[in-house]
Design goal:
Two copies of one chain form a homodimer. By secondary structure, the first copy, chain A, is mostly helical. The first copy, chain A, has two domains: 46 residues, Homeodomain-like (Arc Repressor Mutant, subunit A, Orthogonal Bundle); 122 residues, Orthogonal Bundle (Tetracycline Repressor, domain 2). The first copy, chain A, contains ten helices and no strands. The interface between A and B is large, with 46 and 47 residues.
Chain lengths: 212, 212
């Protein structure tokens, strides 16, 4: 599934740029993010989001096509999968470190954390969002990395990396399991990185059926 | 916090044992488990649980004292912390394997999985349950293990173990990240155990402030 991108407002003049399509798209996105977090994926309708964003429902459809498209845009806005290219580019040796650092840095600032939390909560409560979050995080954030590394079982490696990253994010930012929330970010990275590195590039037991 | 235990109905004759206090306690517990999962910790009242369990509210107070006490009993019923003694008893070498196997085995059967999910969902949505779940899992399930091992930073080790265990449970049983849900249990254990073993007994970077 692809998401229709809003046309970039071309002139680029700022400050004082007048509200235009890009701004409407951002307003819709942040209303959607808030509503998904509050009532879950299933409780949200495009119509209710349009109402709260004070735009015409047709504009929501223009930008995002469907509720699925809107949720995908929220995930993309939260995770910025393109930022993870640096994990692969720096070579194998400290890949685990770069991946966990990049992932946790997204969580460190409040607006970004709210977006990630909104997506994560949608996935953990029992609704259709779980499928979309899973295939987005594994498929678009992690699998490109494990495929680029070129070791056997890239899909399984991506899934395993995901288990440790989500667990750390929950402990540090949501459930607040001490000492994780109060540790320095680089300390958390140091402790977690070897597990990620092993999932990314280590020899894993020969227990996977899939060959993809 | 301690939970008032229901008096064991002494005679032990079965089958055909008449419903008694033990049965009422179990009925209240399973109603509570279902309600916590449906509406979250804050949405539940002792009175509403009594109504649904068709018992007097005084009986709920007799068994569980408070809503906190009831939630703790639900957690205890889901996690059976006493079962984790075997992790320590078998010596250090394959501790990671025994811990992850014991933890995942709890999730493998449906009634038990529903209980664990109920607790986990209460913790991830934003309410007071998160604190209770965290201190229960880390304090009563994992910290006794890391303290018994006698390595530095038992609290941090327990928290780290928790991040990986919760992440795997989410991936295998909730968000269903392939190939984790379809792998044999012992294969998952083999892949995850080295991370758990490192958190339990390995040399960790010297990045923790706490000395407890």
């Amino acid at each position: 599934m692809t998401v229709e991108r809003a046309p970039v407002s071309g002139s680029g003049k700022r400050p004082g740029r007048r509200p235009g399509k890009t701004v409407s798209r951002q307003v819709i996105l942040s209303v959607a993010m808030k509503r998904f977090a509050e009532v879950g994926y299933e409780g949200v309708s495009l119509r209710s989001i349009a109402r709260e964003a004070q735009v015409d429902p047709a504009l929501v459809r223009h930008f995002f096509a469907s509720k699925e498209g809107l949720f995908e845009a929220v995930m993309r806005d939260a995770f910025h999968p393109e930022d993870f290219a640096v994990v692969v580019e720096g070579g194998e040796e400290r890949m685990g470190e770069r991946l966990v650092a990049g992932f946790l840095e997204m969580w460190e600032t409040q607006p970004s954390r709210d977006k990630l939390l909104s997506v994560l909560r949608s996935a953990v409560t029992r609704d259709a969002a779980a499928n979309m979050v899973r295939s987005f995080i594994v498929g678009e954030v992690l699998a490109p990395i494990t495929r680029a590394i070129g070791r056997p079982h890239p899909q399984a490696r991506a899934a395993l990396v995901g288990t440790q990253l989500v667990g750390v994010a929950l402990a540090r930012y949501v459930v607040k399991t001490q000492p994780l929330p109060t540790m320095r970010l680089d300390a958390v990275v140091q402790v977690i990185a070897p597990s990620i590195q092993r999932f990314l590039t280590g020899d894993l037991p020969d227990v996977f059926d899939e060959t993809a």
